[in-house]
Design brief:
By secondary structure, the protein is α+β, with helices and mostly antiparallel strands. The protein has helices at residues 5-19, 83-92, 186-192, 200-205, 213-222, 236-254, 294-314, 316-342, 346-359, 391-435, 439-451, 490-500, 529-541, and strands spanning 23-31, 34-44, 50-62, 65-71, 96-102, 108-116, 122-130, 137-141, 147-150, 261-265, 268-273, 287-290, 369-374, 379-384, 474-477, 483-486, 506-510, 518-520, 550-557, 578-583, 590-591.
């Protein structure tokens, strides 16, 4: 979710409550499009004492990820400060923050500052933060709304809408085409916004300032409407209902009734919001986690996103190799299956040969076909002949075809089994790439691809000269206190099943689907039903069946699980097992961070 006007309102409220009356003691510009302000604050306690603390305000106007948030961590700055940083230091060193506000529900935060000039006179300046995607900027203005400087200079050659240069008047662009959400009337909402020839969601976020597509979709959802419906399909009552839900949300914003939280799909953050989103509440695959503040929400969301993004970027080459090999193996399997189907004619040629051997004496030569009784079925059969051959030669030709197809049939059965195992192996590697959380996990997967010839082995100075990084399996605790382990790759699956698990421990795996081995350590105790279900959910979640929402899980005591000699890592067999169909919601299962 991009930063919309409502999230900016929550951030503004947090910054105002935390930073107003604080003094900016340090100004740094760690990146060309990032500002770091160190702010010291003093609060008088009830007992007359003074509480002093320090906060760091990070303002990033990176086009791909514009952000503003409070953080306790410092960042290294360049040896030579950029021009914008030097201008701010000249004017704002030790200035006091007297107000932080938001223009309507625009994605603009205005920080009002008070300082003494060189003559000792009290002056007011404004630091304006625009968080508008690629148009984001930090603009420093004087008390007459004149631009002193900005972190990005925008000339008319770059933008025909507005110049952002020293000496120019400051104004917010592009607001005349949208309604202010705090002043829009019912008539404007129903007669103008909901009369546009668009679907309802798009009509909302293109007409009202500060609304994002996600929040517009939420409005449609809580109004019991479909986001695919157009405004023309709405009745007068539905328009009124939509308007009342809109005003209710705006009242929450006015009252600063924010509840920052992040929505997760398993361990991956998928959305954040400062207003509850009902669109996710009815789906069991999504879980929500409340945050203390909007800053913490943004930090947690984007740091987790960054980790996932980094791992996905680093695993790109492995995914490409795996997917290419998988596509090739599937094409090979389809070709082999087609060839196997063609060998189904082999028995027919054998019958032709036998019948010609039996009745061929009736042929005089030169016939193109021969009709006789098939003593296997008791029906007449017509056999195509080569008119240039006698009966014996035709029979020999059919026996040769039969023998060739029989050899092909036997060879293809072996090849199809090998190809099927290769596909299963590659699918398990693909699943391991989906689960990977650390670079160590990718190292193990790379090692496996190398060992099975999908990646060329690197030159090594000696055997065992380079050890693979150690990666640990995932560790969970069931509601009943039992340890549950989940393998993140095929080598871990083997280690879990045949080294960590003992005979009476329980083993879980998604039926006929690539996935992790899941082990529940029983310590000789009887496993409660709830722990069975939680282990099954983990097996479903960490498998290729995850996207289906539900999966069939096989489970059995470890002593009944066997590994065939020479089989690929992660491959096991078992002949008697229990099964259950379970959902993939693992939100209530406690993970142990190791």
């Amino acid at each position: 979710m991009a930063l919309d006007g409502i999230t900016i309102a929550a951030l503004t409220n947090e910054l105002k409550n935390t930073l107003v009356n604080g003094r900016i003691t340090k100004i740094a510009q760690p990146e060309k499009d990032e500002l770091l302000l160190t702010i010291k604050q003093s609060i008088t306690k009830k007992d007359g004492g003074t509480l002093r603390f320090q906060k760091r305000l990070v303002i990033s106007v990176n086009p791909s990820l514009p952000l503003i948030y409070l953080n306790d961590e410092n960042k290294p700055s360049p040896m030579s400060a950029p021009t914008f940083c030097m201008v701010l230091r000249k004017h704002l060193n030790n200035c006091r923050i007297i107000n932080i506000s938001q223009e309507g529900l625009e994605r603009v935060i205005k920080i009002e500052l008070e300082h003494l000039n060189e003559m000792g006179d009290l002056c007011h300046k404004f630091l304006i933060v625009e968080l508008m995607g690629k148009h984001s900027n930090i603009i420093f203005c004087d008390d007459n709304n004149k631009i002193v400087d900005s972190i990005k200079h925008i000339s008319l050659l770059v933008s025909s809408v507005r110049e952002v240069l020293p000496g120019r008047d400051y104004f917010i662009p592009g607001t005349k085409d949208k309604f202010d959400p705090f002043t829009i009337t019912e008539k404007e909402f129903t007669d103008i916004v909901l009369s546009k020839p668009l679907d309802i969601t798009k009509a909302l976020y293109t007409s009202i300032t500060g609304l994002s597509p996600v929040m517009s979709n939420e409005l449609v959802y809580i109004s019991s409407l479909s986001d695919k419906n157009s405004t023309a399909e709405l009745s007068a009552m539905e328009k009124l209902h939509l308007y009342r839900n809109f005003t209710r949300i705006m009242e929450q914003v006015k009252e600063a009734a924010f509840k920052p939280y992040i929505i997760y799909k398993g361990t991956e953050p998928v959305e954040f919001s400062c207003i509850p989103l009902s669109i996710y509440s009815g789906n069991s695959i999504y879980q929500s986690k409340e945050c203390e503040s909007a800053s913490q929400m943004l930090c947690s969301y984007y740091s987790a996103k960054e980790v996932i993004s980094r791992i996905r970027q680093k695993s790109y080459d492995l995914r490409k190799i795996t997917n290419t090999a998988l596509e090739r193996a599937r094409k090979k399997y389809d070709l082999q299956a087609k060839q196997l189907k063609d060998t189904g004619k082999r028995d027919k040629y054998k019958v032709y040969g036998e019948l010609l051997t039996t009745y061929g004496y009736e042929l005089k030569g030169g016939e193109k076909s021969f009709t006789c009784d098939n003593y296997y079925t008791g029906e007449e059969i017509t056999i195509p002949l080569d008119e240039n051959m006698d009966a014996v030669s035709n029979a020999k030709r059919f026996f040769e075809k039969y023998a060739k197809l029989k050899r092909t049939f036997e060879a293809l059965n072996v090849q199809i089994e090998e190809t099927s195992q290769e596909i299963s192996h590659l699918e398990s590697i693909s699943n391991a790439l989906d689960i990977a959380r650390q670079e160590e996990d990718l190292s193990i997967i790379r090692k496996e691809l190398s060992e099975y010839g999908y990646i060329k082995r690197r030159n090594e100075q000696g055997k065992g000269s380079k050890k693979t990084s150690k990666s640990k399996p995932l560790h969970y605790i069931s509601s009943d206190g039992f340890d549950i382990y989940v393998g993140k790759n095929n080598y871990q699956n083997d280690e879990l099943t045949f080294k960590i698990a003992t005979g009476n421990d329980w083993w879980f795996h998604a039926k006929k689907s690539a996935g992790s081995h899941v082990i529940v350590k029983t310590e000789g105790k009887e496993l409660p039903d709830r722990s069975f279900e939680e282990a099954a959910r983990l097996a479903a979640y960490y498998s290729k069946a995850k996207e289906q929402g539900k999966a069939e899980i096989d489970y059995i005591q470890k002593k009944h699980v066997k590994k065939p000699n020479g089989s690929k890592p992660g491959f096991v067999v078992y002949y008697t097992n229990y099964s259950m169909v379970i959902d993939t919601d693992i939100s209530g299962i406690k993970e142990v961070k190791e």
